[in-house]
Amino acid sequence: MEFTKKVYSTVIVLMLLCLSPLTAQAQTNTVKGTVTSSDGPVIGATVKVKGSSTGVVTDMDGNYTIKVKPGDVLSFTYLGMTTKEVKVGKQATINVTLSEDDKLLEEVVVVGYGKMKRSDLTGSVVSVNSKAIEKSVPTSVDQVLQGRAAGVQIQANTGTPGGSSTIRIRGTNSLNATSQPIFVIDGVIIDSSGSDDGNSNPLASINPSDIVSMDVLKDASATAIYGSRASNGVIMITTKRGQSGDASITYDGYVGWQTMPGKLDVMNLQQYAQHYKDITDAGIKPASSTWIRGDLMGNGTDWQDELYRKALMTSHNISIAGGNKDVTYALSAGYLDQDGIAIGSMFRRLSLRGNIDANIKKWLKGGINFSLADSKQKTSSTYNIIMTALTSQPSVAVRNPNGGYDGPDDQWMPENPVALAEITDNHNKKTNFRINTYLEAQLFKGLTFKTELSADYNFNNYYYYQPDYKFGVKTNDIRSGR
Above 50 in pLDDT, residue 230? Predict the structure, then answer.
């Protein structure tokens, strides 16, 4: 009897020990409150448990309700206001008053021909700074804005390296046969309307590492400066400039590889043989002795594996900047080399940019900006080789025993996609030179006169070359295109 009591006591103690941590973990409290500012309730403020994904948003009256545990820290955030944190104890109500973020309101934003404090803005402006560029590996400036600017929709037109993107600011509107916005780089207007064709991207000549900030003018006030060209929006780009002080040399670069995240599921050779047998049994196609024993065949050619590769991408940038109280300067050079994931595609860019600002008189200052970019883009998308690879037969080899490219054994099947990618030379070579000079005179306190002169030169050379071939088998060389 005594032994039985000891057993029962031990079991009860063990059960209590097992339940105690579960009970402690399950202890949660409900906290309510109101988030306000000097103007009243804050609608849409984020209330989040710091260090976790638990969070809520305040309602139309600024009220919120959230479940917390003792010791949690609640973080209250709202755009344009300072973040406030409160440690949770035993209180059931936590009311918070947020104050305006003075640093954000004092931030300088480029608008048209001048600059304004964000607190003085009446139009809609979205800004992206250089920190966003440092956290990504963009090829062109349109990729910098993607997913980082509210109200700006950016969609890649093609997967080709150096390819263009479709940019829409607050939907599709057009007064000039295009919905693309205009870009203004240090006062030079760049019309990006030509980037709608998919491959050619005028913005790819700009090195993202040279950018300090990008300001998107989204409303109609931009047309007061740039006219109807700005009806689709304006994207202002400010590049790096020299600062007074000792010369500083900066290098940044990276080396990486690009791979396909996954492949589409298509039939291998055994499955294709069974499929062919099924359609011959149904009388759709005549019977063939080739496909009788598909179970004895291997997997055949995986055209996606043959076409895709692990593509190298590398970027190197070096800059020097400095000056004194009268003259400042900045000079940068960059090199980008990006191979496409599909064989036969690539993008190379060499860029050089510099600027000088000088105080000529106490009341007069001037400067000059210049940029030079040379790029080469190669693509095989003329034949849509991705779709060609997906529809090619697994029974066809990449090369035949003679060393030439193998071709399909069915007249309705597409030609060898690897052959199309390797023997076709389809590239764009571009050289771009931009220059901008200005004079700024302070006539008297509160009134400044500024004049600018800018030029943009583009030299494009499109080259297309393809040998003559039959079913992907090279026969002789014939030049075509220009």
Answer: yes
**Sign of the torsion angle spanned by Cα atoms 287, 290, 296, 301:** negative
Tell me the C-alpha distance between 58 and 45, whole Å. 5
Please give the C-alpha separations between residue 80 and each of 102, 107, 128, in angstroms, as whole numbers: 8, 11, 15
CA 240 to chain centre: 21
DSSP-derived secondary structure letter, 39: T
Name the DSSP class of 379. -
Pick the range with the lowest mean pLDDT from 13-22, 141-150, 331-340, 361-370: 13-22
Closest by CA position to 474, among listed 425, 427, 426, 416:
416
Tell me the two tokens of residue 260: 């396909």
The confidence score (pLDDT) of residue 64 equals 93
- Please give the span between the terminal C-alpha atoms of the chain, in angstroms, as a whole number: 104
Closest CA relative to residue 41, chosen from 122, 107, 98: 98
Side-chain-facing half-sphere of 344: CA atoms under 13 Å: 23
Residues 6+ apart with CB under 8 A from 467: 423, 474, 475, 476, 477, 478
Whole-angstrom CA distances from 341 to 50, 165, 205, 387, 415 are 40, 18, 21, 15, 20
Please answer whether residues 26 and 33 qualify as being in contact, where contact means their C-beta atoms are separated by less than 8 angstroms: no
Q: Write out the two tokens for 39.
A: 């103007």
- 27-39 burial string, b = 16+ CB within 10 Å, else e? eeeebebbbbbee
Count of helices and strands (H, E) across the chain: 9, 26
Cα–Cα distances in Å, from 216 out to 115, 150, 238, 323?
13, 10, 12, 30
- In the three-class reduction of DSSP (H, G, I as helix; E, B as strand; rest coil), residue 136 is classed as coil
Query: Do the strands 211-217 and 125-129 form a parallel or antiparallel pair, or are they unpaired?
Result: antiparallel
Task: State the average pLDDT over residues 435-444.
Answer: 90
Q: How far apart are CA 323 and CA 321, in angstroms?
A: 7
Q: What's the residue count for the chain?
A: 482
One-letter amino acid for residue 136 of the chain: S
The model's pTM is 0.67
pLDDT tens-digit map of 68-113 = 888 889 999 887 678 889 988 888 899 999 887 655 545 555 555 5
β-sheet bridge partners, residue 462: 428
Cβ-proximal residues to 462 (8 Å cutoff; 6+ apart), any chain: 427, 428, 429, 481, 482
Three-class SS of residue 18? Answer: helix
Q: Which two tokens stand for residue 49?
A: 């448990």
Helices marked H in 314-400: 385-390
Neighbours of 180 (CB within 10 A): 22
CB 267, CB 301: distance < 8 Å: no
* Dihedral of the alpha carbons of 123, 195, 434, 112, in degrees to the nearest 10: -10
86-95: which pairs have CB atoms within 8 A and are 24 or more residues apart?
Answer: 88/29, 88/31, 90/29, 91/31, 92/29, 92/30, 92/31, 92/32, 93/31, 93/32, 93/33, 94/31, 94/32, 94/33, 95/33, 95/34, 95/35, 95/36
Q: Please name the helix (run of DSSP H) or strand (run of DSSP E) that holds residue 240, with its range, or none.
A: none
